[in-house]
Structures are given as C-alpha cells and as structure tokens.
Amino acid sequence: MQIPPLLAVQLLFRSKTELSSLAHVITTVSVFLDSSVELPLDEACKLESVALLQRIWDSCEIYTTNETIPDERWTLRRYLRSNRHYRPHIFSAAMNEAMYRHNLEVGKWLLDHFEECTVEVSDALIDVPDEYVMKVLQFFYENDTNRPSRRDNYFFREPIDQTPRRMDWGGFTMAKVAQSRRNDIVWWLNHHYPDVWYNLESALEAALKHGDIQLA
After folding, report:
1. What are the tens digits of pLDDT across the range 123-143?
2. Are the beta carbons of 136 and 125 closer than 8 angstroms?
C-alpha cells in the first residue's frame, strides 16, 4: 500500500495549479519531508498513535516487494516486515513501551502485525505502574491464542491451534505481581497459569520486602 502524501504537501501543491497534476512530484516531496516513517517502532509507540504505526508499516511494503531498491540510504524499515532477527527484537521493545503507557490499542496493533513473536510477559510488566498491572495481565490473557489449560505441561504440551504466537508467562512475572502488593492479582495469576515455571525465590523476596507475610 502506498502511503498517502503529507497533508501539508497536498495543501501546498493545491495552490500550484501548474504542478497539481504531477502526482509523482507531490509524492516525492512528501517522502523527502516525512521523517516520521523513519522512527524505530518502539520510539513511535511513545507517541501512542496507531495511525503513525500504520503509516510506518505501510511505508515498508516497498522493501518486501522490490529486491532491487538501491541502497542510497540505510533504513531500519528494510527489516521491519521481513527480518526474522530484527522483528522479535523490535516487537519486544515496542510492546514494553506500549504496556508502560498501558495503551492496549497500540498493544493490539503490535500483536496483529507480529503474529509469530512471543510476548515475554515479565519483561512487558517491568515498567508498568502497579495500578495498571491487572489491566495489562487481562489484556495478555485475552489475547493468548494457545492458552494452557490447568495441569497442562506448559513447555511440552501440544498447542491448541497452529498459531505460533503465544505469551511466555514464566520467569519474573510472579515477582513483578508481588511487588504491586495486590494479593488478588497473585491468586489470579496462579489460578490461570498454575503450571508455569515462575522464579518463586524472587517472588518471595518481593513479598517479604514489602512485609507481606501472608503472601510469602
């Protein structure tokens, strides 16, 4: 999909009647001026604009359909839609930014455009304010496409469907939840994902640090 010219460029050329019929001139000037598409995706997520994310995404299509584009200017957009090493990296960084801002609309956009990538829940929770931890966990739970049932072996079970994306709930997720001082969230996590490997030592330390003997 070709990205539309910048509105400012369209308005400028609308007054230039001798150039208004030359669509390629408008497009060329717009591309030259539009630096927003060069933003790394995680930086773009800080602006919390799905329209901007989609504009960056659409601008990358040319790199997936044309292998002969000259390397006149290096750009990360070459890798955003096709590079199997770059995609998981930028997805994780972008998701962390989205969840820090508890922007679920941006988070859903990322899930839809990076279907093969895994969400490391513990990483995504690192900077989430305590009052939004449950909101973020619910979002991940609702979008977990191959959610384990109770008593399933999380690491060796057969997936419910063939969708490669899944949430990795293990590691320090329980510790982050314990830091929020919300026992109900700890019980929720244990109820929905009882057989996931959590770093319980870190979770215990977090509970004791806050003087929560009951949780510990």
Report:
1. 999 999 999 999 999 999 999
2. yes
